[in-house]
Amino acid sequence: MGLIYDSMTIFKREMLIFKSNLRTNLIRSMMFPLIIIIFFGNLGNGVSNVPVAVANYANNPTSMQFLNTLESGGTLSIKAVTDEQTGLDMLRAGTVSALVVILPTFPKLQGGQPSVYIYYATSQFSESGVAIPFIDNAVSKYNDGVSSVQIQSDVNAVSTQGTSSSYRDFLIAGVILMSVAFGGVFGGGMSIIIDRQLGNIKSFLITPISKNAIVLGKLFSGTVQSTIYGILAIGLGLLLGGSIAMGPLGLVWILALVVFVAAAFSGIAIMLGSRIKTIEVYTIIAQTIVLPLWFLSGAFFPASSSPPLLQPFNVADPLTYATNGIRDVMLNGFFPLNHVILDFGVVIVFAILGIIVSFALFKNTIE
Amino acid sequence: MSSAEQYSVEIANLWKKFGDFEAVKGISFKIKKGEIFGLLGPNGAGKTTILNMILGLLRPTNGKIIIEGRDNRNDGEEIKQMIGFMTQETVVDSYLTARDNLRIYARLYHIPEERIEQKVNHALQEAELTSFGDVAAGTFSGGMQRRLNLVKSMIQEPKILILDEPTTGLDIQSRVNMWAEIRRLNKQGITIILTTQYLEEADQLADRIAVIDHGVIQAIGTASELKKLVAKGNLLSITVKPEDVAKVIKLIKSKFGLELINKDGRLEVPIEDKYLEKLIKISEVLQKEKIEVLTISMHLPTMDDVFIKLTGASIRDTTGEQQANKNIAKIGGFRGR
Question: Which of A159, A175, A200 is the last residue of a domain?
Answer without folding.
Answer: A159
